[in-house]
Amino acid sequence: MRPLAFLSICAGIGVGLMVLNPARVSASTDLYFGEAIFHAHTNEYFDAISRLDAELGQYYGLDEPGLDTLHFNIDSAQFSVGDFELYYRMHQRAGRAIKSVIEGNVEPAVRNEAIYRLAKILLQKNQPINALHAIEQIKGEIPDSVRDDAAYTRAVIYMTNGRPTDAVRILEGLQGSSTHGGFAAYNLGIALLQLGKDDDGITQLDRAGRTSGNDNGAASIRDKANLALGYKLLESGKPELAKQYLDRVRLNGPFSNRALLGSGWADVALKKYDRALVPWNILLKRNVTDRAVQEVMMGVPFAYGKLGLHGRAALLYGQALESYDKELGKLDTSIKSIQDGKFLEALAREELKKDRNWVVQLRDLPDTPETHYLISLMASHDFQESLQNYFDLEEIRKRLETWERDLVAYEDMIELRRKYYEPLLPEIEKQFQLLDSRMRLRIEQRDNLENKLQAMLIAPRPQFLATVPERIYGQRIALMERRTKHLPDDDAQRQRVERLRGALNWNLYTGYHERLTQAFKRLRELDGVVAELKQTYRSFVRTRQAASLSYEGYDSSLNTLRIKIGEARERVKSTMLRQGHMLEVMAINELDVRRKRIEGDQVKARFALAESYDRAQKAQTDAAFQAVAEQKAEQAKKVAEQAEKDAAAAEAAKQSEAAPKTTGQPAATDKPTGGATP
Amino acid sequence: MKRYFYILLAIALLSGANVAVHAEDVSKAQIKGLDEQVQDIKKDVLGISAELAQLEEKLLYPSNTQVSVFVSFAKKGGFRLDAMDIKLDGKEVAHHLYTAKELEALRNGGVQRIYTGNIRTGDHQLEVSFLGQSLTGDYRKNASFSISKGVKPKLVEIKVAGPGLGESIAVKEW
């Protein structure tokens, strides 16, 4: 049951990671959110989190967040930041972010989605009981986009917690799912086997092993199901049936070696040793570092032995021993290279990570360990997490190094700006103050004018709207009025002056409204000029401020940042050392386990070799004895035949002699013949 | 010999489970403890990154001169974008060749910040040209727009679309 349990959990976690999408919605309504999604899709999760964190911080700092463009996507943004953190293996923060959504005042569908995500995090962090508590909080509507994901996660959680009955119920409902159908079919089979319903489980795994689909994922599920089923049937003592399923596994897939091995054992169980040699001889030619290949190196001579070909078996056991010796040497060299730090050095090489098979490519580098032995370790969750942490720390180390260099560049830039602006600014400031006072005077004048005009709306003052010539005329008329004051009222000169006054006043009073309108119009025109002036003024103030801000007030933040970066670098350095050491220990332990297994195989191979020699020798001796015995029997047969012939001849002679003399002659048959005795 | 067969068979069966971690000397608690420390470092470094971003923005791109140009796809693009050129006031400010991952990011609603720089307040000429591949072959487009820079940071989004999906280059000022 152990292999089956392992396979089911593996499939569960695999899908768990597979269904996590960096972004669920289009972020076209907010550029910064869109930018974060862009970073996430290009696997730059640090930048994605950094961008989205800043955007969310800004959003929550707003007085009216409802007016912000992020408002329409705030739920998605919160989930996305959680997703990004999860991808960046910041499970604690991702969990907290999602918990805050759960505890917030949100719609049931949003809350349920958040719970499902939290449960998945807990499952991935190997906390199945907490994951179970979380997933059971889901009540009511689940968004369509995550409905199947949530159901599948729930089923995996039930299976991990030993509740296959509940898992079966859910997985049955997922059989038609376009995204999870294959995994659900496979895990349903495993869950039924866990329940002890072997027949149903076998039927279901058989179905999973025949699912349609040409992509790699579907083919892998088929292989996995057929392999699990094959081994299950082998365990149950049904080798003939087991072989059928094991032979369905692709010959070039990741499960092919174990399938070939199992197929051979099925033949052996059926005592068809010659047929077992067919899959095993294929396997024997494959990479010797694979455990299945190492096992088959003992299997093939075993089968030859069973066929009575002990000499051939002994030869192959000898070859196996040679191969084990060679592999042990490789393992020792690999352990040494890890101890010398070559493994970590190789892991940190950037060019390798661009290759999909970079783990395998590592072995081609000089002095690096034999990574084929580490492939299964490298596929394990703990190693992967530790390795990714190591990579993340390496990336952070480089980032911090760059930032430290940037700070130096910023300081240089600030110094240059200071040198440029400091001599210029005092003179500019002096000129600015002059202009500033002139501007204030003009604005004051304009304001007075407006006040007067406003007052004239209530109390008309036509004189105020006189033109310059009219004012001059008015002054001259007033002078003339003073001069003609003493003259009698009917004096022609005085009357003439009064007519002039009358004409002037007529013009002023009759044109008053038009003049007032004109005055307001011109005031508005003046306002336009004043607005332009104020804009130029503000622009100047901003530029002057920007000039001084471009080099002032950075010292403190630069120093603080330098200290923080320095401290972070130290922490990264020490944590990297510990993380690296942990990886080395894990790798060495793995190689050591493989070493011990090969040593065990070696002992068995020696015994088997000795036994085969004995059997071969015994067979040879037996054959020699048999040959001698056969020879002697042949000789005895010949002697007997000769004796018979002699006896017949003697009898014939006796009869011919007896014809004339019929009595007195002894019988010739009792006489031994010389030289025919063995 | 039958016993020997079963031993070998048991090894073969157990090999199915040998993917589990064998690092017995490295305990789960150690792995978890170190993982939590790494997470703490990430949290702190993200904090430093945010402070540094603020400082950089203030120092390098003050809001009154800041301009940022973004690229996004309209309706999943509908073609394969190979290269993008951006000119501001006749001067080339950005030239980008797209990787498969970046294209996938754009198709999934991602928005690429292609340029951040400084310009004076007032009107400016933005020239956009791109080269891509559509079902019918090379797909090359260019367009010119006038953008107006005010006191606030200027954000310009360039939306590109494939043949038959509307305007091939559209600009939105934020």
Descriptive report:
The complex is a heterodimer of chains A (678) and B (174). Chain A is mostly helical and 678 residues long. Chain A is built from 26 helices and no strands. Chain A has helices spanning 2-18, 31-41, 45-61, 74-87, 91-103, 108-124, 128-135, 144-160, 164-173, 181-194, 198-208, 216-235, 239-246, 256-269, 273-284, 291-306, 310-339, 342-347, 350-353, 358-361, 375-379, 381-458, 468-483, 492-510, 512-549, 555-658. Chain A is elongated. Chain B is an alpha+beta fold and 174 residues long. In chain B, strands 4-1-7-8 form a four-stranded mixed β-sheet. At the A-B interface, helix 1, helix 2, helix 3, helix 5 and helix 12 of A face helix 1, helix 2 and helix 3 of B.
Give start-end ranges of low-pLDDT stretches of chain A. 1-27, 661-678
Q: Assign the CATH superfamily of the domain at 1-208 in chain A.
A: Tetratricopeptide repeat domain
What is the succession of H and E elements of chain B? HHEEEHEEEEE
How helical, in percent, are the residues of chain B?
25-40%
CATH class of the domain at 1-208 in chain A: Mainly Alpha
Globular, elongated, flat, extended or rod-shaped: what is the shape of chain A? elongated
In short:
The complex is a heterodimer of chains A (678) and B (174). Chain A has 678 residues and is mainly alpha-helical.
Short key terms for the protein model shown above:
heterodimer, A: 678 residues, mainly alpha, Serine Threonine Protein Phosphatase 5, Tetratricopeptide repeat, 26 helices, elongated, disordered N terminus, disordered C terminus, B: 174 residues, alpha+beta, Immunoglobulin-like, 2 domains, four-stranded mixed sheet, four-stranded antiparallel sheet, 31% helix
